[in-house]
Amino acid sequence: MRIYSIDFIKILSIYLVIVSHVTLYFLLQSPEDFGALAARQLGQFGVVMFYMASGYFLLNNRHSDQFSYAYNKAKNVGIALIFWLSFYYVYDNFFIASFTEVEHHDFLAFINLDTCMSDASHLWFLFSIINLYFLLPLLRFAFVKTQQKMLTNVIAALFVIANVSLVEKVLNAALGIADVIHPALLMSSQITGLLSFLLGGYLGLFFQPRHLSGRLTGGMLLLAIASFTLLVVLTQRWGIDFFYGKTYNLFLQVSAVSVFVLLLCSRVGRLEKMISHVGSKTLGIYLVHNIFIMEINGGWIHHTLYPKFRFLSAYGYIFCYSLLAFIASYLLCCLLSQSRWLNKLISL
């Protein structure tokens, strides 16, 4: 059964990722600007919610052959990954390079997204989701109602272990205490997105969406805002690299889980048709949006456009441009979906 609130969560998640990518230009101008840091962290917030939405369904799927199901998913993602890496290589090195100063990379260097900053950088997500697909056959059989206590304990333990690395970083930044725990134990050495993926599966198995009281809704909303605000404050103090890319961090997880539950319980009945159309293209929107954003090489776009829209303020411009990029990406996906072959590359 389709759950439209999950589709809405995915739509919102992708939009927030786009907001984060547009923000990079402004963050480079003012690295300590609170609003720009908040907008940049919204991208991580969106990534966490997308992992949770994926786990919500995948860890509760009812396929009889779990390996074949996971293998086919991973194979399709791998094919799409190769295609879009090749596309962005041509896009960066031949199209954008024709009118901007883009550093040229050979293809083998370009596909190493960890060391090569390019407009394909956002494709790191596909690498991580392939890993999670191959863990799926092992994890799926643990996600049964009789194992609630075990799942609760394991997820809690992983959550604590994951954040030990951040405790070390805080002690190092605040008190100058050197690292004492071997990196092999820390979640930063493990599979990206695993904790959020498990949390999504846990909520899918044990949490029944229902109408929440005003007091509970308000409390969860305040918790999410407070946790996210604290994340941004600490980011402003210690720099964007302190938390960025560490999707398992306590503040991000608390705010994302709170909003995820609130949206899961939201009523979207009147928007079901629109959510259905856009929701079927969310992954495609994620894959193609950097055509319009050019996160790494798009400074010339904002340098040209932003002065004409200063009445919006930098933050208004960020959210409006992100919305336009989201719409343009959706329309491009609609066009690509007319081809059966291309449709396989944007809807996995």
Summarize the structure in words:
- With 348 residues, the chain is mostly helical.
- The protein is 68% helix and 0% strand.
- It has helices spanning 4-29, 34-58, 66-95, 107-110, 124-140, 148-175, 194-206, 214-238, 250-264, 272-279, 282-288, 290-293, 299-305, 313-336, 340-343.
- Helix 1 crosses helix 10, helix 1 (4-29) packs parallel to helix 11 (282-288) and helix 1 (4-29) packs across helix 14 (313-336).
- The mean pLDDT is 87.
TL;DR?
The chain is an all-alpha fold and 348 residues long. It has 15 helices and no strands. Belongs to the acyltransferase 3 family.
What brief labels describe this structure?
about 350 residues, mainly alpha, O-acetyltransferase activity, transmembrane
> What is the overall shape?
globular
What's the β-strand tally? 0
Outline the low-pLDDT stretches: none
- Specify the helix fraction band: 55-70%
Distance between the termini: 18 Å
Oligomer designation: single chain
How many whole angstroms does the radius of gyration measure?
Answer: 20 Å
* Strand composition percent: under 5%
Helical stretch count? Answer: 15
Supply the helix-strand structural class.
mainly alpha
